[in-house]
Amino acid sequence: MCVVIYPYCVMLNLLSHVPCDCQMGKTVMATHEGRVILTDDLHLNNVLFVPKLHCNLISVSQLSDQLNCFIQFACSLCVIQDRLSRRLIGMSERRDGLYYLQETHAAHILAIKDSRSLVVELWHQRMGHPSSQVIEKLAPVSGLKHVGGFPCDVCFRAKQTRDSFPTSLTKTHKPFELVHCDLWGPYNSPSSCGARYFLTLVDDYSRA
């Protein structure tokens, strides 16, 4: 739901006052419905225009369904990534218990406050994308003032981890008694034969 039309909405349709439930049991009326372009990668359809709202609100479930994306919440940050490529397409900063979407160009999701943050980010790339603790150690040497909190698209995609699988107590005694399967896909670009999935089969006994 939104309260500001310009410069986000590109198409509006008149509605016959659709009721919308808000906090504290209050009901407000939506007068229009349209398409909203927040950034180059964040396009939302069926957005309701509610004149009596005090701020624009984005539904996390609707955002995930429409964009088919990953949404990860941290203590002070919300990251929106493409589900297939893991490319960073949006970021929100937490303030007073709410996550505010940064109004930045989607091709470069950057939190540049001044020229110093750009210099720090340049050194972050030159040094092979180290952690913020390493960058802080660089500041006394080079005279740079550390500016924390800038997002790095490469770090978000390359440094993601997942929990390890639990140790299996199952023991096999002959080939094909237990076969592990892993199906990967779909991939954006098909293979020469038109396939978009990759299947891996590993025999538990022979590991072949």
UniProtKB/TrEMBL annotation:
A biological process from GO: proteolysis
InterPro entries: GAG-pre-integrase_dom (IPR025724), PolX-like_BBD (IPR054722), Retrotran_Ty1/copia-like (IPR039537), RNaseH-like_sf (IPR012337), RNaseH_sf (IPR036397)
SUPFAM superfamilies: Ribonuclease H-like (SSF53098)
MF-aspect GO terms: nucleic acid binding; peptidase activity
Keyword Oxidoreductase applies: no
Residue ranges constituting the Retrovirus-related Pol polyprotein from transposon TNT 1-94-like beta-barrel domain according to the UniProt record: 25-65
Domain GAG-pre-integrase: 97-160
Keyword Protease: yes
Domain of life of the source: Eukaryota
Keywords assigned: Hydrolase, Protease
The protein's name: GAG-pre-integrase domain-containing protein
